Amino acid sequence: MMRSRFQQGLDELRTKLLEMGGMAESAVESACDAYAKRDAKLCQVVFDREKTINDAERMIDELAVDLLAMQQPMAVDLRFILAVLKINADLERVGDQAVNIAQRVLDLLHEPGLDIPVDIQRMTAAVTTMVRRALESFLTANAEVAQAVLEMDNVVDRMKDEAFVTLVHNMKDDAPHVQQYLDALLVTRNLERVADHATNIAEDVIFWVRGADVRHGADRGKAPGETAS
Question: In total, how many domains does the chain have?
Answer without folding.
Answer: 1
